[in-house]
Structures
1.
Amino acid sequence: MDNRPVGVFDSGSGGLPAAGALRERLPNENIIYLGDTGHMPYGGRSKEELIAIARRNTDFLKSFSVKAVLVACGTISASLPEVISADAETPVFGVMYPAVKAALRASKTGRIAVAATERAIASGAFASAIKAERADANVISAACPKFAPMTEAGHFSKDDPFVAETVREYLQPVAEFKADTLILGCTHYSLLKDAIADFLGPGVQQADAGEAAAEELAKFLRERDMLSARLEPGRESFYHTGGGPELFANFAEIFFKRNITADLEYIDLPQTRSAL
Ligand code: DGL
């Protein structure tokens, strides 16, 4: 038994679906969530900047003596698989490998598409991880730079014409490729599931990186007897680093089914460049 909280971070609201999925699986855990809203998007940043961000965010969460960290960010998970280690003193989990495993389980034809940020796609890490497990897989990768900022700005409804148009813009090649499975390799894309399903049709399964990682982390804590001994429901504390807290609170409400405003605090984390 381990009563310490679990830490989760992302560039903004994208990790909230993953944190919500963790909450569903682990009702008694305390969760500390950091949404680095003041420095989003991460998707176009250099590897050096991402290293600095990953360290800074992990150190912030460790200051709460967390028992594990979920890097609920496909960009960091794919660009820096070396920062992710289940063996470290504080285990750090990424979302890429769980997403790839979920996609391989779901795919019948081996035609797998990956949608993620520019940096995550440029790393080639998703495609390599798929090929490492299934050498005959056919992989198509789609960088979708507008998706995360679009959802962060509140545009994610399938009925929003701008959303439908942007989904088409990036995923037309995926439709033509006839993938049977699409990896949502950026956690923000969870919010676009319905719009993507509308465009690609019901024949394409979606492997959600955040949800797959939440499942793995929950299993890891359970198997190692690291769950909280508490009987009452776990609490959540949310931190953001700038921008509009209202929108962040609205997103959190979707996944935690309550108003979180009283548990949301601004934290002044250093600019990533000066953290280098
Ligand atoms: N949600 C993050 C990811 O999974 C970051 C998106 C961004 O900030 O560009 O990649």
2.
Amino acid sequence: MKKVIIMAILSIIGVLNLSAKEINLIPQPISVERMSGEFVITEKTSIQYQSGLEKEATYLQELLEASTGFDIETSEGKKTKRAIVLSVDSVRVATTEGYELIVSDNSIVICGADNAGVFYGIQTLLQLFPPEVYNNVTSKDIEFSAPAVAITDAPTFKWRGMMLDVARYFYDKEFVKKYIDMMSMYKLNKLQLHLIDDSGWRLEIKKYPRLTEIGAWGGEGPTRLGGYYTQEDIKEIVAYAAVRNVDVIPEIAFPAHMLCAIVAYPELGCTGIQHEVPIQHFISRDLLCIGNEKSIQFLEDVLEETIALFPSKYINIGGDEAVYTNWEKCPKCQAVRKEQGLKKTSELQGYLTNLVSNMMKKHGRTVVGWQEIAQRGKLDNQVVSIAWTNLKYAKDATDKGHFTVLCPASHMYFDFPEGRTPGEPKAATWMPPISVEKCYSLKVGDYGSKELTLGVQGAFWSDIFIHGTTLQEIYSINENRSENYAEYLTFPRLLALSEVGWSVEGERDYDSFTDRLKHHYVKLDNKDCNYRVPEPYISEVEVSEEGVEFTLEESVADAKIVYTTDGTYPNPHSTEYTEPVTVENTSDFKAITIVTNRHVSLPIHIEEKYADFKKYGELSAEWKPKDIKGAEFATWKFEATGKIAGNGTYEITFVYTGGERRLDIEDVKLFKRDELVGEDVHTGYTGGSSKNNTYTVKVDSFEAGTPFFIEANVRGDLSNDSYGAVFIRKVK
Ligand code: ACM
Ligand code: ZN
């Protein structure tokens, strides 16, 4: 009897042990072989490293000493017991940045193809330890053990980047370092530092002091906003990033997005007009005047100081969103166009790109820029083109022999909200939300040529920070508005980006990713990194005579779920979810994830009103009697930005929901800003019964960031007493 009890206890402990040692790595390595045993860090643990790996050894030492409280010795060469052994062997591990990691009872061996591989082996190892390993505070009561495993790993893509917009909103160097640290935890290796935009110049340039004296600051008095990095700050950031295998790529934007420089030195523009540094989101039409010798000198001087600070092989020159009206009107710019034999004014941008790329070539650097740089005339040198509005530009670039990096606004712009849940912070709204799943769905290999597709990048724009000043009343975001908010929007999507860039494309699996992701929030907590707490997953909804039964699942491991059944917003003291809950109406049920009482999710959000019309696609507009002129046909216009979200064929369906009269439709036009892109003319109606009430349009010139509108020619049958909704569905 006693034996049975002991065995039962042992087996429970066994199970507990196993679940505590569950392996949940992000990004998923190429192969993970589980073995028996574990490595436990004790006061005897040491780090032994091969010559050339001192930085990696010190990085690991500092991290382990802080969390475990042990003195961890490091030594070059000499073999010690219970060691973590770091080495490089590019024959054994052939792929750049790849590594092997073997954890056994007595040792941990990390062998990298290069220093980067060793660093990534360390990152994988850290994910095997309890999450407190990331904490700066010593946890004496925790056993720091890692399960025995043999892992072989290497990245799929060599460019795994993030862009951080420090121009629209200035983040200090400590935040930039933290961002780099978080990127490196998930094996991202390129930081595009967006140093310049219309609303701010963030890089000290000794030859042009007004750039930072004037161009780095917007507004007056207490609302004055801005800042910049000194050259010493940049050196510190670059050195910090180098240890973490993050290549910091400066973005010096031109010919557009540089109004701040023209404010500091008005002679750099075509008009000479003295502007002000904008304090709201603004894309200036002022460009660098190409016909002005000072401008070319300016670019050369600025780039010279820039490359002296940034060792990266890549220099980003921006190049996006230039509108050429000022160049069209400027006699000096037009003189250059004629002299160069260029037909179109826009080709002057290509001319400028060539000037700079030739200069960069002399310094052994490669020019990177947004997709537009490969679109404005013939280029002298191979460049890296970042596709952002449309992934067809990836192929377009590689067809021309350029490299491409995918950073589509549809999947990788982390300044977009994750969902439409009420309460979601106000963020960029010109595209549909980007859920973690959407971000994860990007297949990097599907667009440009294999040889010239370098990889993938996320982008975090900060224009929303200077849009207005009110953010949503979510205390965990508002207590430290900018940095917490940036992290809220970046995480957890950065983890999806990590796997998109690193793991084997054909083997990625979203369900597996979400199962692992559940266990990463606690790691982020230990890193003191904010994130958007996911709502509980709704795993089942069953409608019966008793009402609607909800079955929920946790989306954050070990986090509590609480709910209400009266439609009110739950708080940490609401009823804890333990079993399926039945309510009379769907909208009565609200549930949230609670990580801590101060870090909770938004409530699960069920759009109920139009549940029956889901088959028609997304709700795009609703009409009321006032939108309809009367019994004569007239135009009703509404916005469809975000519903038109890429090239393809769209069905636009009108559905009557109330009122005395039916709605007649005879013509539906789709506009991209004010350009007609598609039209369907036929007679249809929707009322007590509906006929031919779906209109089909084709979009083949989609551009992210451009608003779409629909103009429908409609009338009420006899009067305007009609209510209804329009749904848009992408069919191809
Ligand atoms: C961009 O979003 N303007 C690259
Ligand atoms: Zn000009």
